[in-house]
Amino acid sequence: MQKMYFHNNKSIDQNINTNKLSKVQHIGEKQIVDINKLLNRVKINQKNEIKQKIIFYSLSILGLSLLGTLITFLK
C-alpha cells in the first residue's frame, strides 16, 4: 500500500510494505486553473459517455432483434 506525506512543501510517497521512500517531489508555486476549461472538459466527457451508452444499447437491441429473426426463420 502507498501513503502520501506532505511536509515542508514536499510530497513523499512511502511504500508501507518496504518502508522505503520511493519518490520526493517538490510542490511548486500555485498554478493558475481556468474553471471554464475544466467545466468544458466535464461537459465533453459527459457527452462522450452518453454517446457510448447509446451505441451500446443500440448494438444490444440490434443483436437481440437479429437473434429473434433468426429463431423465427428456423422454426
Overview of this protein structure:
The chain is α+β, with helices and mostly antiparallel strands. The chain has one helix at residues 35-74, and strands at residues 2-7, 10-15, 20-26. Strands 1-2-3 form a three-stranded antiparallel β-sheet, with no helix packed on it. The N and C termini lie far apart (58 Å).
Summarize the structure.
By secondary structure, this protein is of the alpha+beta class. The protein is built from 1 helix and 3 strands.
Biggest sheet, spatial arrangement of strands: 1-2-3
Number of strands: 3
Helix content: 40-55%
Q: Multimeric state of these chains?
A: single chain
Number of helices: 1
Largest sheet: 3 strands, antiparallel
Secondary-structure blueprint:
Elements lengths: L1 E6 L2 E6 L4 E7 L8 H40 L1
Antiparallel strand pairs: 1-2, 2-3
